[in-house]
Amino acid sequence: MPIIEVRSLSKVYRPNTGAPPVEALRDVSFSVEAGEFVAIVGPSGCGKSTLLEIIAGLQSPTAGEVVVLGKPVQGPRTEVGIVFQEDSTFPWLSTLENVKFGLKARGVPPAVQETLAKEVIQLVGLQGFEHHYPRELSGGMRQRVAIARTLVLRPQILLMDEPFGALDAQTRIVLGNELLRIWQEIQATILFVTHDLLEALRLADRVILMTRRPGQIKRIVETAAPRPREQTPVASAKTAELANMLWEELRQEVV
Amino acid sequence: MKARILVLRWLTVLAFLLVLEVLPRAGLVRPSTLEPVSVILVRLGEILFSGTIPSPYFARAGTPTLASHLSATLGSILVSYAGAVLIGTPAGVLLWRFPVLARILNPYLVVYYALPIFALYPLFILLFGIGFLPIVLLGFLFAVVVVIVNTALGLRRVDEEIYPKVGRSLGLRPVQMYLSIYLPGAAPFVFSGWKLAFVYSTISVIASEFLISVRGLGHVIDRSYRNFETANMYAAIILVIGGVMLANSVLTWIERRLYTRVE
Ligand SMILES: Nc1ncnc2c1ncn2[C@@H]1O[C@H](COP(=O)(O)OP(=O)(O)OP(=O)(O)O)[C@@H](O)[C@H]1O
Ligand SMILES: [Mg+2]
What we know:
The complex is a heterodimer of chains A (about 260) and B (about 260).
Chain A: E1 4-13, E2 22-32, E3 37-41, H1 48-55, E4 63-68, E5 71-72, E6 80-83, H2 95-105, H3 110-123, H4 139-151, E7 157-161, H5 169-186, E8 189-193, H6 197-203, E9 206-210, E10 217-222, H7 237-254
Parallel strand pairs in A: 3-8, 3-9, 6-7, 7-8
Antiparallel strand pairs in A: 1-2, 1-4, 4-5, 9-10
Helix pairs in contact in A: 2-3, 2-4, 3-4, 6-7
Chain B: H1 2-25, H2 37-50, H3 56-61, H4 66-97, H5 99-111, H6 121-128, H7 132-160, H8 163-169, H9 174-211, H10 217-226, H11 230-262
Helix pairs in contact in B: 2-11, 4-5, 4-7, 4-9, 4-10, 7-9, 8-9, 9-10, 9-11, 10-11
The structure holds adenosine-5'-triphosphate (ATP) and magnesium ion.
């Protein structure tokens, strides 16, 4: 049984400012198996963030439903963690306090909070910055704080919305490899939005390609990459071929 | 560079004080308008050390001590200010929580500080007489709106940010949302409102004391002016300005700490 089932999802935003309604998603259906790493690519504004937030229970769909772990999504769930596209660190908390935030809210004992948080901070390579505030960190470091804050809760399902968007190409690859390692270690299911086709192909088992707004699924490709895998700056011939094909399809949507 | 600017800044202050010293001594300004700075400072020291205002008027009025005026002014400021903070902050929260309220009240809030509330002072005298109550009420009215507006603004700003969404995704309960997201997120704005409210209630209290009081530093300034006790008047003015500057720098220091954490 798939761990995430998205069933004919549609979303229309009706701004209360009087602006015309925006159809963000139209009849989107797909499913994700437990332990899978699935990437989503699509033109800007096609509804990728909307899709992730609906799966996370942060927004309600206009039509259709999402079933996670056999139960329809009605609101945020502890089994699901999300990393947002924009900087979402709390500026009034230090790195350590940011990472502990969700644990504290769940009533985890302080000593355990400390241990778990330090562990994850190590994992994302922020040791030495525990007591720095977000304004003292670079954009990429802040994004890692946000990732750590979600990871520390050990969600079974990890939704990531362009988590490496604020990073340079080298750090992206390094952190992508870290993510692959973490993913294998904690055996999570990952749904990963990116605008980088090669990144999608290198990281994911499957890549979902979306059309321009209103977002529909245009195509799903299997990358069939071997496990465990390691990203390299230069793609393999197979990956390059897939990337070219995806690019052809994506180009029709962008213009 | 920085040191030189600091030196120059103090030099201008010194030059300014020197001019103020020389003008009355040279007879260019009448002593009823300005006494030499040295005389004023000596008078201020005298008042502070002896605790009494050397003036036949205040002796006759039965309020010769500095303490009687200082306590009146501080008491009025504190009560009106505390009222503005304690009532204005929850009112601001309500305004944010119920946007309908905000939409109804918005036109009034927008023009509020354009209205000269002091023009109503005769009404206040008619209703409450002369003394503590009308002064505190005026101070409260003058200060409360900036607290309401800033509190609502700060909370609305948090709503425009991603933080509430993060909170929900991490499974926060409503109480936790308020305490861990809205409170720290809005704190700098709320505090700016509190700070302005202090300035406003001080302005209002001093000004009301000119008009509707028989005690307080404002009253001292007003009476000394009318009785041509220029040195006493300037000493009281310096006391007011010095006190406000001190309080303000403390508040600014706290405010800056709040902001640097959020920036
Ligand atoms: N809260 C909202 N109210 C109204 N319209 C919205 C809202 N959020 C998103 N939209 C609209 O929905 C569409 C999809 O937005 P979404 O953020 O999901 O796109 P996206 O695929 O994540 O884009 P990007 O790649 O640029 O992040 C956009 O046209 C956007 O204008
Ligand atoms: Mg997006």
